[in-house]
Design brief:
Blueprint: E1 10-12, E2 19-21, E3 26-31, E4 34-37, E5 47-50, H1 54-62, E6 66-67, E7 72-73, H2 76-84
Helix pairs in contact: 1-2
């Protein structure tokens, strides 16, 4: 199989709602009710994806607390903490 024919998963950013290739987004999940980064993509359960660009992070902070991708609410203080702990790429 050539590299051009290889399938790359596409995910939606919870900040801007744009679809992008999975490697271009950072994944986070809920662990004991708190959002945590899952950079290796190995945590179990539902995950949400986010571009690490300023406009996406700002949009994520201003959205309603319920994230359909996680089927859970993420309160504003937890969102702020998650963005502050974001990985650098």
């Amino acid at each position: 199989m050539s590299l051009a024919a290889r399938h790359v998963p596409v995910r939606s950013c919870v900040g801007c709602n744009e679809r992008d290739a999975q490697p271009c987004l950072a994944r986070f999940t809920l662990f004991e009710g708190r959002p945590v980064w899952d950079l290796e993509g190995r945590r179990r359960g539902r995950g949400a994806y986010l571009h690490l660009e300023r406009r996406c992070l700002d949009a994520f902070l201003s959205r309603k607390p319920f994230l359909r991708s996680l089927r859970a609410s993420v309160p504003a203080p937890e969102r702020v903490r998650l963005v502050a702990e974001r990985p650098l790429r």
